Amino acid sequence: MDASTFLRLVRAPAGLTVLGDATAGMAATGRRGVLPRLGLPIASVLLYWGGMALNDAADAELDRVERPERPIPSGRVSRRAAVATAGGLTIAGIAVAGLTGGRSSLAVALPLVGAIWAYDLAAKRSVLGPLVMGACRGLDVLLGAGAGAARVAARPALVMAGHTTSVTALARGEVHGTRPVVAAAAAAVTAGSAVAVVRPAADAAGLVSWVAAARFALPALRAQAAAVGTPTGPVVRDATRRGILAMVPLQAALTARAGRPIDAVVLLAIDALGAVLTRRGARGREIT
């Protein structure tokens, strides 16, 4: 497998959307230390990439019909190689979580892996699919908090889980469209999340939380409102994409709310980098 195929298989740029989960969890609990603050976000990315590779292996037959351009149906990588890649990345993610976050984070990494693999292999097409995916995000936040401080990090974990659940439910209509009530529910969750992540704008952390909350909510709400009025596949795909891109500013708002504005600004910079990469990717597709 060459580097280009690997990056496509794991949706490499989308890995940016999980970097802030552990950061928000650490901010909520006041967890410090250079090693966990650098290593746990990397562990999240590795586990996310592993889940993406496993997703494509599990969906290979469906993708031959609906997404033939993906690496497996296009013949660039075999299903067996995708499973091996998923396994290798998962083991690496667990190892990094244990080495940088200790037993407390390792105790969360294991059920997180269980939830990721359960989603890809069994729950994805069931009625529980969005809830299982939401649980993955909530556990990813708790990866940063550590098992012993899970209760303290309940707010960011639940906010990320709720947003992820609503976006996943909406994403089920990316091909054939959805019902207006599903898009309306996603918009309601977005609005509620924006309210839940701000703090009084009396200091730097408060100001950053409001900026990040606006960056999170406004683009997502516009796209979700469009999906309420026109719940077709293309419109739902755009709303889903906006919901996924909104993950990073949501993490930034949660981090600022917990009193770490500098970390939150770093996440907003990552969000800006992701926007640049997205625009360049779009221009590349137009040229080709």
Based on the structure, what is the oligomeric state of the protein chains? single chain
In round numbers, the mean pLDDT is 92
Could you give a short account of the major beta sheet? none
Shape category: globular
Structural class: mainly alpha
Strand percent estimate: under 5%
Number of strands: 0
Q: What is the distance, rounded to the nearest whole angstrom, between the alpha carbons of the first and last residues? A: 23 Å
- What is the tally of helical segments? 12
Unreliable sequence segments: 282-288
Outline the fold blueprint.
Layout: H1 3-9, H2 19-29, H3 34-58, H4 60-66, H5 79-123, H6 129-145, H7 154-171, H8 180-196, H9 204-229, H10 233-245, H11 247-257, H12 261-287
List the main descriptive attributes of the protein structure presented here:
mainly alpha, 78% helix, disordered C terminus, single chain, 288 residues
Protein model, in words:
Helices cover 78% and strands 0% of the residues. It has helices at 3-9, 19-29, 34-58, 60-66, 79-123, 129-145, 154-171, 180-196, 204-229, 233-245, 247-257, 261-287. By secondary structure, it is mainly alpha-helical. The two termini are 23 Å apart. The longest helix has 45 residues, at 79-123. The chain is globular, with a radius of gyration of 18 Å.
